[in-house]
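Nitroreductase
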Amino acid sequence: MELYDVMRTTGAVRRFTDDPLPDEVLERILDNARFAPSGGNRQGVRVIVVRDRATREAIVDLSVTGARRYLAQTKNGEGPWNPVQPMKVSAEEVAATDVPPYLGAPVLGAGAVLVVCVDLNVCAAFDQYLDRIGVIPGASVYPFVWGILLAARNEGYGGVLTTMAVAEEPRVKELLGIPDDYAIAAILPIGKPVKQVSKLTRKSVAELASHERFDGEPLRA
């Protein structure tokens, strides 16, 4: 596919057919994604390919903690899991929130599930002392994650970047044998889409880019 077509049609895919994701296709996807940039070109990413049904079911179970709060806050009109505004729903309300089965369907129905980790020893976390949540280490892993999704689209497959299970990261690490000094950045169900979108809706350039300052004039050609 032409590059811009891939970029404009790589949406979140959550429903998959029963078509397999062969190892040779997955290797080709990762073989191209590995050229993503990382801090100092240290290439601290690591991918665990999960096909076992029981392991997938365990990942879905470990996602319930994050999903409950996400759903409870959304229902209450809050930005779920945002690091700025305090949660307004009670712990009891969160615990009483039902998690519908469809939230686990992508992990269970994909051809494979990729658990993408990053070695924290090679992340230059320039924001680690700022009075906010850290985001800079993601620069050494998320270009790679996005490269996987772009390459999958180019191969006729699709996927979705999920992170709900990371709320229980210590237990996921134990499940998958991930060392303490690695962080889980994403869990990617990858497979053949039931329906591949041909057009995505996003904000315009003028809504997300401005000249010189945050409050500057919108960028328009």
